[in-house]
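User: Structure please.
Assistant: Input sequence and predicted structure:
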Amino acid sequence: MTTHQDTAVSIAEAVSRFHKDQQGVAPASVQAWLVSDAVLVRCEGVFTPTEQSLCETTDGRKIVQSARRELRALTRRQIEAEVARAIGVDVLRSYCDLDVRYGEQVEVYILARSL
């Protein structure tokens, strides 16, 4: 029997792999929590070296924020599929927010059913 902790670890690993495939760099830390029919994922240290340099200025932070928002729009269905595959439950929709001041990203996945 799979525990919630095992499932959370599987989700964190899937999200980390996806970020590495997309940006070439895995987040420094990825944590996942299951809450009824939702999954909350917190990624820390998500920037590439180029993005880290850009984030030293206000204009650079705006560029990184915009680029990441566009990338998420393009890859949303792919990451939702990865999370669904990791837990065996369809993902209905997802949300994402990036804090460019800290290189932290929070992702929320709404599942088709509670785990």
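The CA atoms of residues 13 and 30 lie 8 Å apart.
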